[in-house]
Design brief:
Blueprint: H1 2-33, E1 42-44, E2 48-55, E3 60-68, E4 76-81, E5 86-89, E6 100-107, E7 113-123, E8 130-139
Parallel strand pairs: 2-8
Antiparallel strand pairs: 1-3, 3-6, 4-7, 5-6, 7-8
């Protein structure tokens, strides 16, 4: 009777060990989906731009060029600015590996003074967005 109990205990322990191992590998795989460098794979030629002095009420635009340097297709989920005076536009289609694109940013220069604005570029399946920055001074 003891041999049967020992065999059943060993089977149970083996099953438990395998189950725990499978769960751990699954969690590690899931954790790796959303890690890495902000905007990983989306390499910008430059991530900041200073317009210098610009005239009030004359909007200015800059295009931030990028290349998909990853081996996966990248989809830009959203590009948002920290205020309504800055409007980003991004490609609506997926960007294939090795292909390039631009994020077009227009700043509405209604308010006089020095400004710095951040634009957050969020990719699908990436929790770490890329951040672009524009700055300058609006003068009369």
């Amino acid at each position: 009777m003891r041999k049967v109990e020992n065999k059943m205990t060993m089977k149970y322990l083996n099953y438990l060990t395998l189950s725990i191992t499978a769960v751990m590998f699954s969690l590690m795989s899931f954790a790796n989906l959303n890690t890495g460098v902000p905007g990983e794979g989306l390499n910008f030629e430059k991530s900041t731009h200073n317009f210098g002095k610009i005239k009030q009420n004359q909007p200015v635009t800059i295009e931030f060029s990028f290349v998909n340097s990853s081996t996966k297709t990248i989809i830009i989920e959203d590009a948002t600015a920290e205020c309504g005076c800055t409007k980003p536009e991004f490609p609506p289609r997926p960007i294939q590996p090795g292909k390039s694109g631009t994020i077009k940013v227009t700043f509405d220069s209604k308010t006089m003074g020095v400004f710095t604005k951040k634009i957050t570029v969020k990719l699908v399946n990436d929790n770490d967005p890329a951040v672009l920055t524009i700055s300058g001074e609006v003068v009369a």
